[in-house]
Amino acid sequence: MDIDRDMDLDLLKSLVAVSDAGAITEAANRLGLTQPALTRRIQQLEEEFGTELLRRSRRGAKLTEIGELVDIEARVLIGRYEHLKSEVLRRQSASGGNVRIGGGATAVSFVLPDAITRFQADYPDVLFQVKEAGSAEIASDVASGALELGLVTLPVRTTELEIQPIVEDHIVLVASPDNPLAAMS
Question: Between 3.90.180.10, 1.10.10.10, 3.40.50.300, 3.40.50.1240, what CATH number should domain 9-90 receive?
Answer without folding.
Answer: 1.10.10.10
